[in-house]
Amino acid sequence: MRVLVAMSGGVDSAVAAARTVAAGHDVTGVHLALSKNPQSFRTGARGCCSLEDSHDARRVADRLGIPFYVWDLSDRFKADVVDDFVAEYAAGRTPNPCLRCNEKIKFAAVLERGMALGFDKVVTGHYARLEECDGRFSLYRAADAAKDQSYVLGVLEQAQLAHSLFPLCDVPKSQVRAEAAELGLGVAKKPDSHDICFIPDGDTAGYLSRALGEREGEVVDQDGAVVGSHSGFHQFTVGQRRGLHLGVPAADGQPRFVLEVEPVNNRVVVGPKELLAVDRIEGIRPTWTEARVSGPWRGQAQVRAHGEAMPATITSTDEESLLVELDSPATGIAPGQAVVVYDADRVVGSATISAARSTDRGVA
């Protein structure tokens, strides 16, 4: 089988490539150049896609004896991930760029080009498990719960899963590093990347201010009283506690959190943590890993990459919407995030959160 391995320059994709070679496949490695002006080096565990990462990937490919190429997808990455990220914050929403990158770049652009070049499968170093039955592919959580990445793959559909391989489905990260060391791969001890790859300094608020500019506005409490000011609503997200710089303390002395971002009014609403609690999540643009499940059905919902899987009743009444009713209230759920729904360890589908509500209070 002709297999294309997406090699980031990290240890996970390196071992995924090595395992694919060991399985006897005809393997080619490809590194994705996602920036027009990449950094020369990474800073510890921050960022990725630097020239150093590209060189690390090439050295792994040389060690494994496989062909290696660099594909320039920077224009598409900017349009589908970076520009989308900025536009979502400008609309008062909180996007997940890693999930969008998987959807639009790694499992759309790469698959499209790979299939056009005659490859049968695309391999990545994601921690997730695929099972095939009667020609249908099901996506499951990985064996290593701490590294499970099924959440960020929840946007994938059947046609994409059918051409994907995840060789790290059954191993913990410690074993991956051990395998890399045994093979003499220089990335065996390389730290994992964190944060948003195109914001390597981790200063998301600063990045957004440079992209969107600054405009002063009010910070108000849940009753509409002005308690502070801000230089741009895009610097805040629902559930945020730090960096509010409030001039008026709460009457009860308790900390306050962002309850809502209002781009039209250029206002940020803050209040006590209990007002963040929601038990009804409304989603739009759902995707299904196998086929749409209308429901209502009992499953679990997850709203963060390594968040809790929350018991819920899930309903999809049409092709454009998803309703998740949580058994117990949860906090810090913001429009723009992804909700991924599971049946035990199996991923069923995902949607973009359009609203999060409490059945007692209305919109959160």
Plain-language structure description:
The chain has three domains: 181 residues, HUPs (Rossmann fold); 59 residues, SH3 type barrels (Roll); 87 residues, Elongation Factor Tu (Ef-tu), domain 3. The chain is built from seven helices and 18 strands. The protein has a six-stranded antiparallel β-barrel. A five-stranded parallel beta sheet has the order 3-2-1-4-7, with helices on both faces. Strand 16 and strand 17 form a beta hairpin. Helix 1 packs across helix 6. The protein is globular and about 65 Å long. GO terms for molecular function: ATP binding; tRNA binding; tRNA-uridine 2-sulfurtransferase activity. It is found in: Cytoplasm.
Main beta-sheet annotation: 6 strands, antiparallel, barrel
Q: Name the CATH architecture of the largest domain.
A: 3-Layer(aba) Sandwich
User: In DSSP terms, counting alpha (H) and pi (I) runs of 4 or more, how many helices?
Assistant: 7
- In sequence order, what are the helices and strands, one letter per element? EHEHEHHEEEHEHHEEEEEEEEEEE
Q: Key features?
A:
about 375 residues; Rossmann fold; Elongation Factor Tu (Ef-tu), domain 3; six-stranded antiparallel barrel; five-stranded parallel beta sheet; tRNA processing
Would you kindly provide a brief summary of this structure?
24% of the residues lie in helices and 30% in strands. With 364 residues, the protein is α/β, with parallel strands linked by helices.
List the SSEs and their pairings:
Layout: E1 2-6, H1 11-22, E2 26-33, H2 51-64, E3 68-72, H3 74-90, H4 97-116, E4 121-123, E5 128-133, E6 136-141, H5 158-161, E7 164-165, H6 173-182, H7 204-212, E8 217-221, E9 226-230, E10 257-262, E11 267-271, E12 278-288, E13 297-302, E14 310-315, E15 321-330, E16 338-343, E17 346-358, E18 362-363
Parallel strand pairs: 1-2, 1-4, 2-3, 4-7, 8-11
Antiparallel strand pairs: 5-6, 8-9, 10-11, 12-15, 12-17, 13-14, 13-16, 14-15, 16-17, 17-18
Helix pairs in contact: 1-2, 1-6, 3-4
